[in-house]
Specification:
The chain is α/β, with parallel strands linked by helices and 239 residues long. It has nine helices and nine strands. Strand 1 (2-13) and strand 2 (16-27) form a beta hairpin. Helix 2 packs across helix 3. Bound molecules: adenosine-5'-triphosphate. The site of adenosine-5'-triphosphate has 11 residues, from strand 2 and helix 1.
Length: 239
């Protein structure tokens, strides 16, 4: 089953072309990493998939439907911009968000899975950066989503939290979910993802696996990434 489909998608903000002629399909059970330099269009792609913005041209399909209201109950998301009600307790918030989904998981189970049981009675404002990220994952998981869209989900996490995070995310894939996540961490992409997409200046410049990107063996992933995205020549001032 195709979970995500983008066909010839363009998104412009005035003069800025955030995405250009993007074509991609993600199948059920995949864990897809989206890599790209700052401003490449990763967040814009997530916002399109969530129905938060509309494409300037092209078509976007999520779980066979147009993004937005009709599929909202089947998609879980972690966005960089997510604001949280700071005075609500962790348990209340997970329970509250769960109520808006047709087949919500048990609040206690979700807190246990995201290692937040000991923080359940705390207000959101008292959480550390990594705990806040785990809460965002809990909120993304509580609706038992078929698709998880995670925008730089582990950015604030320490090594142990990252490991727990991906164990839980993988468990949801074992239960039938599909994950698309953005990251700047090439090692994370290589170890976690079954497929790697590289976006540069709004265009898809690679759709492959981390192994295939480096299969010649004479370059490491970072070098391949910099070459694909032309960041090396920009950094060296010879673009
Ligand atoms: P980062 O790695 O820095 O998070 P990104 O790959 O997620 O970057 P986007 O946030 O999708 O990149 O931005 C793509 C381009 O679109 C950038 O040039 C950005 O400035 C522009 N852009 C994004 N949202 C808007 C908006 N609401 N209005 C105007 N320009 C926007």
């Amino acid at each position: 089953m195709t979970v995500v489909e983008m066909h010839d998608v363009q998104k412009a903000y005035g003069e800025v072309r955030a995405l250009e002629h993007l074509d991609l399909a993600v199948e059920r059970g995949e864990i897809v990493a989206v890599l790209g330099p700052n401003g490449a269009g990763k967040t814009t792609a997530f916002e399109l998939l969530l129905g938060l913005v509309r494409p300037t041209a092209g078509t976007v399909t999520v779980l066979g439907e147009p993004p937005g209201r009709r599929v909202r109950g089947r998609v879980g998301a972690m966005l960089q911009s997510a604001g949280l009600p700071e005075q609500t307790t962790v348990r209340e918030l997970v329970r509250l968000v769960g109520r808006s989904y047709p087949q919500a998981l048990d609040t206690g189970d979700v807190l246990a899975r995201t290692a937040l049981t000991k923080r359940a009675a705390r207000t959101v404002t008292t959480l550390s950066g990594g705990e806040r990220q785990r809460l965002l994952l809990a909120l993304a998981l509580v609706g038992a989503p078929e698709l998880l869209l995670l925008d730089e989900p582990t950015a604030a996490m320490d090594v142990a939290s990252r490991r727990t995070f991906w164990e839980q995310a993988r468990a949801s894939v074992d239960d039938g979910a599909t994950i698309v996540f953005a990251t700047h961490d090439l090692t994370e992409a290589a170890t976690v993802a079954t497929r790697v997409l590289v976006i540069s200046q709004g265009r898809l410049v690679a759709d492959t696996t981390a192994d295939a990107l480096t299969h010649h063996g004479d370059e490491d992933l970072e070098e391949v990434f910099l070459t694909l995205t032309h960041e090396r020549s920009v950094a060296e001032g010879d673009d």
